[in-house]
Amino acid sequence: MDGKGGSFVAVRRITQTAGRGHGYHPPPGSTAWIGKGISCVCAQGIKSEAHLIFDLTSSQEQCLHRLQRRIAIVYDSSKKEHQEALKAIWGAAYPGVELLGLISEQWKDMGWQGKDPSTDFRGGGFISVENMLFFARNYPVSYNYFAN
C-alpha cells in the first residue's frame, strides 16, 4: 500500500497440500462485491503493509471468475437485453405508467442524474443494472420506497 489509507481485497485458492502457498502476499486491489459463497472483507484505511488473504475452494474460485467476467460487461444501450432491463426497472417502479423512451425526462423524476439512465451505469456496468432489477423484483416494497 502507499500509506494513504487505500482499500484492498485479496483472495487465493485453497491448495490440497498443507502449508503450500502460505507465504504468498498478493498486491492490493480494489474493493468489490465478490458474490455468493465467497467471503469479502474490505479493508479501509489500513496504514500497515499487512495484506488480507482469504482461501477459496475450487468452487468458490470458479464463482469468482464467473463474476469477474460479468463485472467486465459494460452497459450497452444498443443491446436489446440491456434495453429491456432498463424498461423492467422503470416498470417495477411505475407499473402501468408508460415509459416514453429509454432517454426521457421521466428518468429524472425517478431520481436519475439526467434523462439518460445509462450514464448512471457507466462505472458499474451491466451487472449494476441486473442488481437493481434483482432488488426491484425480490424486494418490491423497499424498491418502490427507494425509487419513489
UniProtKB/TrEMBL annotation:
Organism superkingdom: Eukaryota
UniProt signal peptide: none
Residues of the ELMO domain: 81-148
Name of protein: ELMO domain-containing protein
